[in-house]
Amino acid sequence: MLRIKGWDKIFENNRSREIKNPFWVAMPNRHDSLGFRALVSMPDGPAMYGAWCVIVQIASRCTPHGSLVRDNGVLHTANSISIRTGFPEEIVTACIAALQLSAIDWIEDLQEGAVIQQEGAVIPQEGAVIPQEGAVIPQEG
């Protein structure tokens, strides 16, 4: 599962946390961070930054916010993001790869251990091995 790093601190505020289906997202407007500069200096960097913006917008409407999970619980892919936004799949794919580079580090792929919290319930995903924020951890003993 793809999850935007630092979502709660960077993209949420007191108003957005209470909105189930937002029509807007708070987004930083700095253009001097090392991550931003690394991304836009890549081949197709400005296009990948545009893809990043729509990824953030999609993630703002997912449950939980910041995770790329469709309403039916199926994980978003570069293909589903491309279909939903009209951005070329190859740009979205390149963007997702670039966002995971240590020079940028804006997104993480949780794959194993993904836990999706929907409507207050914690639902471990198949193969989950690493508890995520909000996960109920059984006590041994």
Structure description:
- The protein has 141 residues and is of the alpha+beta class.
- 33% of the residues lie in helices and 10% in strands.
- The protein has five helices and four strands.
- The chain has helices at 7-10, 34-40, 45-60, 78-85, 89-99, and strands spanning 2-4, 107-109, 115-118, 121-124.
- A two-stranded antiparallel sheet has the order 1-2.
- The longest helix has 16 residues, at 45-60.
- The N and C termini lie far apart (31 Å).
- Mean pLDDT is 81; it is low at 112-133 and 137-141.
SSE order and pairing:
Elements lengths: L1 E3 L2 H4 L23 H7 L4 H16 L17 H8 L3 H11 L7 E3 L5 E4 L2 E4 L17
Antiparallel strand pairs: 1-2, 3-4
Helix pairs in contact: 2-3, 3-5, 4-5
- C-alpha termini separation: 31 Å
Main sheet strand line-up: 1-2
Total E-strand runs: 4
Q: Which of globular, elongated, flat, extended, rod-shaped describes the shape? A: globular
Strand content: 5-15%
The sequence of SSEs as H and E is EHHHHHEEE
Estimate percent helicity.
25-40%
